[in-house]
Design goal:
One of its GO terms (cellular component) is plasma membrane. By secondary structure, the protein is α+β, with helices and mostly antiparallel strands. Helices cover 62% and strands 6% of the residues. It has a domain at 8-120.
Length: 728
């Protein structure tokens, strides 16, 4: 017997006869029958209803959406509608069928009349190909079968995988450049004069790092740290930052070309989302009136105000983390446990980073609800419009959640904490934390590394484990198979559909946001790999490793662990392209700021050309940055400490009169020296120069690479010409 084809399966609990839920369910199924749907009922622990749409629905669909020239040729023989279209049409009709109580399927699901509605994973040839070539770990480095993905999951999912594959492929170049930068830092710049001076400075006495129980310390203690800093903070980083700005542009431009090719191959150029939606509405109900576009400035203003408030909250959380670190540092230093007091700063930074990760996880959930609420306030007209609005909001919220503490570390840490004898304090009590003596960029490096590694490993493991475990649990809930034996042999002949439906029901459910989540995760990762990449050149490498795993993990989830997604049509990746372009611009600004403000690149250059021994005499043999460290430390007299600071004036048995700290201030009145303003001006000049050069290069790259390949343009051109000639 040929296997019956069912488009959708509805699942409901077994309600009592005559109960409200049972009546509502019957009303809904009657509405479907009126439309000519075939319905098959199978009873197990739940009730399963197989739904099959009548053929005339698809004929109408083809008629309404065919281009006029193909109407005359194929008026007699309708080709079969592809499965993806079939599922999409049936899904639309199911979602928009109204019962006599004016309830749709969505409302019935809320009232627990139906529990689930899903299309089936069938034993088709395509499904087998995908399982063999795509949804398994063995094919990690093979090309993805995009064409087959499209035939099984629809264009939207196929475009996501095409984009992800393309991004991963181009990450190889960024990862190599990042490795080269680190390698250059480890070899060429490892013998740098600056770190040598720090390692030799064993009689430069530094001011204590906290108010109580902290002793003076010697600069050469931080020797290893200085070497690490110089691995990332050198001339190669500047070149790498410019390279990444160009890379981000080229990636997007090349993706636009790729997309144009794909869209023509899939015949999507003439397709229009609005037209499709109207056609489906009319097929479902021929009396349907379209919902018109609306826009209210009042609503927009409210949404804007609420969004700004939310961003304020997110920035407030970043401040709370800063305060936590300052307070933790003070408390750990004064604690009686020697382990805590000795490594107070490291422990404070590490716990701070972990706390930050926890806030990211919690705030993601909160952002989600807030963005949905704001979206409902705007009352968007179509599904895609709603998705675009939601995307922009959630991305902005997620961006602030992920980046606010990085922004603080990069640009504010150690710049707003005053100087010895006059520290800026939280609530007049706790000192703000300072940068490490060898520069602030290492703090940023640690924070980036912790977040990227934690985020990628933990979220990947959770992303795979949760569906897997819940799938295993759902399998376990099967009822015992003893019943049929007791009833005698006549029930042995089991319906072939039953096994298939049950198997699909055991898989995890998918929702509208399943694909959205994947996009969001990769886009946030893309911002990590581009925005602060100057401080963490290994980011592209981590992203590359993550993506190779991610592609196959998503594939396995979609094919083996989740119910089949309702295939959607799409021409491109939608609003995400604009989001990526915005990130590209932010990346130029972010990297410019990191080099100008966070790193020591500018102060060293200013010293070399204006204050070093090279400027005074003609020393060709000498390294021009000699003496930089001594020049960058200011002198502080111990008698000027604040009264409540407890410091032992002895150090290694020597009475100490003055100590050094990182800043450019006079020794007598502690005001800024002229060199501070020189460096300040140089930082600004560099920032303006870097951004303009990088933006110009981006614009040139965007102009140089056409968005649509010639081949595609010519194909469309000849197509149009052929159609017009036929008309004539």
């Amino acid at each position: 017997q040929n296997e019956e084809k069912w488009d959708f399966v509805l699942v409901s609990d077994i309600h009592e006869m005559g109960s409200e839920k049972e009546i509502k369910r019957k009303k809904f199924l009657d509405e479907l029958s009126k439309k000519g749907f075939t319905i098959k009922k199978i009873e197990d622990t739940k009730l399963f209803y197989g739904v099959r749409a009548p053929q005339h629905i698809f004929w109408k669909y083809q008629c309404l959406l065919m281009n006029p020239d193909s109407r005359q040729q194929n008026s007699s023989a309708y080709q079969d509608v592809p499965v993806t279209t079939r599922i999409r049409v049936v899904h639309f009709i199911l979602q928009n069928t109204v019962t006599s109580d004016l309830e749709k399927l969505h409302d019935l699901m809320k009232k627990k009349v139906f529990e689930a509605a899903f299309p089936l994973h069938k034993k088709e040839q395509i499904a087998e190909i995908l399982k063999k070539k795509w949804a398994r770990w063995r094919v990690l480095f093979k090309e993805q079968p995009i064409e087959e993905i499209r035939c099984y999951f629809g264009e939207k999912v196929a475009l996501y995988f095409a984009w992800l594959g393309w991004y991963t492929y181009l990450l190889i170049f960024a990862a190599l450049a990042g490795l080269a930068t680190v390698a250059a830092g480890a070899t060429v710049f490892s013998s740098s004069q600056v770190s040598k001076e720090i390692c030799d400075a064993n009689n430069t006495i530094m001011c204590p790092l906290c108010d109580q129980n902290c002793s003076f310390w010697v600069l050469s203690d931080t020797c290893t740290y200085a070497k690490v800093t110089h691995m990332i903070d050198n001339e190669a980083t500047v070149v790498f930052a410019i390279f990444m700005a160009i890379w981000a542009t080229v990636f997007l431009e090349l993706w636009k070309r790729e997309r144009a090719t794909v869209a023509t191959n899939w015949d999507l150029y003439g397709w229009d989302e609005e037209e499709e939606e109207l056609a489906l509405q009319l097929i479902n109900n021929s009396q349907h009136e379209p919902r018109l576009y609306q826009h209210s400035y009042f609503r927009s203003a409210i949404v804007l105000i609420l969004a700004v408030l939310m961003i304020m909250v997110l920035i407030g959380i970043a401040h709370a983390l800063v305060i936590y670190r300052a307070v933790a540092m003070a408390l750990f230093t004064q604690s009686d446990v020697s382990l805590l007091s000795r490594h107070a700063d490291t422990i404070a930074v590490m716990t701070g980073a972990v706390l930050h990760y926890v806030t990211i996880v919690i705030m993601t959930k909160v952002n989600w609800h807030v963005a949905l609420y704001l979206c409902n306030l705007e009352k968007p007209r179509t599904f895609s419009q709603r998705e675009n609005n939601f995307t922009v909001k959630i991305f902005i919220f997620q961006f602030f959640t992920n980046f606010s503490s990085l922004i603080y570390i990069a640009f504010f840490l150690g710049r707003i904490n005053g100087h010895p004898g006059h520290y800026v304090r939280i609530a007049g009590h706790w000192r703000l934390e300072e940068c490490h003596p060898s520069g602030c960029i290492t703090d940023l490096f640690i924070q980036m590394a912790v977040i990227m590694l934690l985020k990628q490993t933990i979220s990947n493991i959770m992303e795979y484990l949760i569906p897997w475990v819940s799938h295993q649990l759902r399998k376990k809930q099967k009822p015992p198979k003893k019943r049929s034996v007791m009833l005698g042999e006549e029930e042995e002949e089991e319906d072939p559909c039953k096994r298939q439906w049950l198997k699909n029901y055991e898989l995890n459910e998918v929702n509208v946001f399943s694909l959205f989540n994947e996009y969001l995760e990769i886009v946030i990762q893309y911002s990590f790999t581009t925005i602060f990449v100057a401080a963490f050149p290994l980011a592209p490498l981590l992203a590359l490793i993550n993506n190779v795993i991610e592609i196959h993990m998503d594939a396995i989830k979609m094919m083996r662990l989740r119910r089949r997604m309702v295939p959607r049509k799409a021409k491109d990746i939608g609003i995400w392209l604009q989001v990526l372009e915005a990130i590209g611009t932010l990346a130029v600004i972010g990297n410019g700021l990191v080099i100008a403000i966070t790193s020591d690149f500018i102060p060293v250059q200013v010293y070399k050309y204006m204050y070093s021994p090279c400027t005074r005499e003609n020393h060709t043999s000498m390294d021009c940055s000699t003496g930089y460290i001594n020049n960058s430390l200011s002198v502080f007299h111990i008698r000027d400490f604040e009264p409540h600071t407890k410091v032992l004036p002895e150090f290694n048995g020597v009475q100490i009169k003055e100590c050094r700290y990182r800043d450019y201030r006079n020794a007598d009145d502690y005001n800024y020296t002229i060199q501070f303003w020189h460096i300040f001006a140089a930082r600004l000049a560099f920032l303006i120069l870097f951004e303009h050069v990088a933006l110009c290069v981006k614009l040139i790259a965007a102009w140089y690479i056409p968005d649509v390949p010639q081949k595609v343009k010519n194909q469309i051109l000849t197509e149009k010409h052929k159609n017009l000639r036929n008309e004539l």
